[in-house]
Design brief:
The chain has nine helices and 26 strands. By secondary structure, the protein is α/β, with parallel strands linked by helices. It has three domains: about 180 residues, FAD/NAD(P)-binding domain, CATH 3.50.50; about 120 residues, 3-Layer(bba) Sandwich (FAD/NAD(P)-binding domain), CATH 3.50.50.60; about 70 residues, Enolase-like, domain 1, CATH 3.30.390. It binds flavin-adenine dinucleotide.
């Protein structure tokens, strides 16, 4: 057994984990902190990996969340290139891949998600996109006159499509649902974004599933469920992600599409979770959610750090989710909980204009605002969503 620590152990040292360690110090928490990450270099920021970094307009050093000197100044022990393999909450111990055990006074789980690669699509040349190494491999195919097939029309698939089209590569997208982003923003806004991509030259195969992938001399061939065969230099599979919870098997902690926490992001006594991996009951919508957004990961890290340091209040974690996405010259921004079943009301512009804003209404109350190139409406919409959801919470 290696050194024993009686401080905070953070599992996962990327956006949410790193931010937790930093905030603990900002809150004057002086005890030991150990951050363990399976990756040798977890500091790379992910949003540029489908946008500026993939396009080659941002280089490696600008991709780093923090520079090393700043992190060294925190007095944190970084255990990198070692996965945590198990947790024993009763003994307050985590075990890492090299056999070392760390005891903790408080544990923070910040293990994020990893891309799903269904076995039928798992050809050697199939790309996924989560890490810098993934982005580097995909970037090798980015060239005018090149070609890419993307399976999955979610945010990552559409952002990569825009990046490849911008250099003049041919892009075809295969999506099982009838519109892109249907689950994320519903069919109306999904349809508007589809038209932006079609005008840019992207070809969609909607309502279609890929059934086979075959390597060939100059790339890959993808067979669809209607018998169509597409070919291209490269294939990106962007069909969703799995929360990083495998190491919790046998821990007794509840896992259900994420590690399940209470409204204070507490998983069990002395165990907390932050970032893409956590599912918690959101007080503003009265149901459990798991949010894969950059800003939410940071807000959760700050919240948990304050609770551990004893400087936080007793309110549940209720930050309104926010995300942005950049596609061509469009900035898409959303606050709240857009859903496919909501009534969508256009509040400015129209869905085929260069800019527009829409409100999502469920039972007559605003639940989300989504806007394209419209920051002013997004802020006004955010205030309305917060007010109406808070009123609803107070009356229920
Ligand atoms: C290509 C891409 C583009 C994106 N663009 C946007 C955007 O435009 N807007 C937006 O709001 N969000 C965007 N996101 C989402 C955003 O990046 C995530 O919400 C954010 O990275 C979540 O941070 P996290 O720390 O929770 O998880 P991660 O960043 O996934 O970090 C988890 C860390 O845990 C480590 N880990 C996992 N398991 C273990 C283990 N057992 N032991 C030790 N370490 C472990 C991993 O190595 C990793 O370093 C994008 C994501 C991707 C991939």
């Amino acid at each position: 057994m290696g050194a024993v620590h009686d401080g905070v152990v953070v599992v996962g040292g990327s956006l949410a984990g790193l931010q937790t360690a930093e905030c603990l110090r900002a809150e004057n928490w002086t005890g030991p902190i150990v951050v363990v990450d399976a990756d040798d270099e977890p500091r790379f920021d992910r949003p540029p990996m489908s946008k500026q970094y993939l396009a080659g307009t941002v280089e490696d050093d600008r991709l780093l969340l923090r520079d090393r000197e700043r992190l060294d100044g925190l007095g944190v022990e970084w255990v990198l290139g070692q996965a945590v393999t198990s947790v024993e909450p009763a003994r307050r111990v985590v075990r890492i891949a090299n056999g070392r055990e760390l005891t903790y006074s408080e544990l923070v789980i910040a293990t994020g998600v990893s891309p799903v690669l269904p076995s039928v699509l798992a050809a050697p040349s199939a790309h996924v996109l989560r890490t810098k190494a993934d982005a580097d491999r995909l970037r090798a195919h980015l060239r005018p006159g090149g070609s890419l097939i993307i399976i999955g029309a979610g945010f990552i698939g559409l952002e990569v499509a825009a990046t490849f089209r911008k250099v003049g590569a041919r892009v075809e997208i295969v999506e099982a649902l009838q519109t892109p982003l249907q689950r994320q923003v519903g069919p109306l806004v999904g349809g508007a974004l589809q038209r932006i991509h079609q005008r840019a030259g992207v070809v969609f195969h909607l309502g279609r599933e890929a059934t086979a992938v075959r390597e060939q001399d100059n790339g890959v061939a993808v067979t669809l469920d209607d018998g169509t065969v597409l070919d291209a230099d490269a294939l990106l599979v962007a069909v969703g992600s799995t929360p990083g919870t495998a190491f919790l098997a046998g821990s007794g902690l509840t896992v259900d599409d994420g590690v399940v926490a209470d409204a204070h992001l507490k998983v069990a006594p002395h165990v907390h979770a932050v970032g893409d991996v956590v599912r918690w009951p959101h007080p503003l919508v009265g149901r459990s959610v798991r949010v894969e957004h950059w800003t939410t990961a940071i807000e959760q890290a700050k919240y948990v750090a304050k609770r551990i340091a004893g400087t936080g209040g007793d309110e549940p974690f209720a930050a309104l989710p926010y995300f942005w996405s950049d596609q061509y010259d469009r900035k898409i921004q959303a606050h709240g909980f857009p859903s496919a079943d909501a009534r969508v009301e256009v509040i400015d512009g129209d869905l085929d204009a260069d800019r527009f804003a829409v409100m999502y209404l469920v039972d007559g109350r605003a639940t989300a605002v989504v806007a394209v190139n419209h920051p002013r409406q997004v802020l006004a919409g955010r205030r309305r969503v917060l007010t109406e959801l808070t009123l609803q919470e107070a009356s229920s």
